[in-house]
Structure formats: C-alpha cells, structure tokens
Amino acid sequence: MRIVTAGRLRRLKQDAEQARSRARKVQEQANAAWSRHVRELYAVTDRAERAEATTSEVAEILARAMEELSAAQQELLLKDIEIRRLREELEGEPLEGRTLTVLLHYGEPHTIYASREDAYADTATHGGPPDGVWRPCDERPAAEFKWRCEAFIYDAGSNGFRRAFMPAPEPIGSVV
C-alpha cells in the first residue's frame, strides 16, 4: 500500500500537465508535418499532370512535324527524280539553241520546265493565268511580279544557259 502525499500529488499533476503540454506540441508538429506532406503531394500531383499534358502536346507537335518532314522528303525525292530525268534528256540531245523556261515567284526561281507550253500548263496550279493568257513582261524587276516565266537558252560560249530575251542596252551616259 502506498500513501500519496499532497506534494507527491502536486508533482504527479505537474508531470501530467507537462505530459499533456508535450503531447499537444507533438500533435501540433505532427499536424504541421501532415499539412506540409499534403501540400507537397498536391504540388507534385499538379506538376505531374502538367508534365503529362505537355508531353501529350509535344507528342502531337512531333507527330505533325514528322508528317511534314515525310511530305517534304517525298517532294524532294520527286523533284530529284524530275531533275535526273531532265538531265538525261538534256544529255541525250544537242544543247545548242535549246531553251528552258523558269517559273519565277516574286523573282525567285520556283520550277524549271522543258518548254514554255509545259510552264503555262502547270502555272495554273500555282495561281498563275491559265493557258496563254500571259502577257509580255515590261522592264520592271522580276521581283515585282507574283508569277513570271522567263526563257533561258543554252549558250555554248559560256557552257551554260542565259536569258533568251535580254533588255536592250542603253548607251552609257544617256539620260532616261
């Protein structure tokens, strides 16, 4: 049997109060840790969802880019085949006096044709005037025309092609 004195009872109450105080602090720390954990979990989940969405977008962009690349490669292959065909055709025939027609788009070469008729027939697909509605170009630079056909003729002296129709040279020192 044990006798409990008032001093012992007071110490037990103090110990119990300290234990309760410590338990409250530990509970507060646990709650704070749990809150941090939940916030971090939400943040990580949000980042993962955004990363997944971004990955999907990038995959779609990459798929479209691969389709465009494939189409461009196919177009290059077709143009390469056409260039080889034209070279073989040119090598098989004498070049002297031979003409080629170049379709220019704002002054930049777009397509080369074996004949003017081929050029006129094909330019309608590029937005040019169809079948012979072409008018002679004036002296403005080629860059000022949306579509323009220029004829080039083989010149044996330069071992290359030159414009078939050159503008008339103006005398030096003439006033325009």
**Shape designation:** rod-shaped
Number of strands: 4
Nearest-integer average pLDDT:
81
Helix content: 40-55%
Query: Cα-atom Rg, whole angstroms?
Result: 43 Å
Q: Main sheet?
A: 4 strands, antiparallel
H/E element string?
HEEHEE
Question: Which band does the percent of strand residues land in?
Answer: 5-15%
pLDDT < 50 stretches? none
- What's the arrangement of strands in the largest beta sheet? 2-1-3-4
For the record, give the distance between the C-alpha atoms at the N and C termini, rounded to a whole number: 134 Å
Number of helices: 2
> Which structural category fits the helices and strands?
alpha+beta
What report would you give on this structure?
- Strand 1 and strand 2 form a beta hairpin.
- The protein contains two helices and four strands; from the N terminus they run αββαββ.
- The termini are far apart.
- The protein is an alpha+beta fold.
- Strands 2-1-3-4 form a four-stranded antiparallel beta sheet, with helices on one face.
- Helices cover 54% and strands 15% of the residues.
